[in-house]
Amino acid sequence: MTGPPTDFRVPQPGADADIIRKTNDLAVRLAQRAPEADRSRRLPTETVDDLRSSGLLTLYIDAADGGLEANYPTQMQVTELAAADKQPRWI
Prior knowledge:
By secondary structure, this protein is mainly alpha-helical. The protein has helices at 17-40, 45-54, 72-84. It has one domain: Acyl-CoA dehydrogenase/oxidase, N-terminal domain (Butyryl-Coa Dehydrogenase, subunit A, domain 1, Orthogonal Bundle), CATH 1.10.540.10. It has three helices and no strands. Helix 1 runs antiparallel to helix 2 and helix 1 runs parallel beside helix 3. The N and C termini lie far apart (32 Å).
């Protein structure tokens, strides 16, 4: 038997709350653009700009190299958020 479903929008134990907040904020913007992105069958320029400015493209890059260097719980939670909806998979 499994427990109640986890709300991946809330930072889980050990996850970096700031990165999870950025991910959620970006997911909302991507979802708003989803209908147009689906119709045009291309990634909107605004989405690329948002991904770059959020820093989330550097999630797995060491801080010494300019990345977020997210810890494992954060990486897993961002992955779960992305899996929940096709638009945030761009993160």
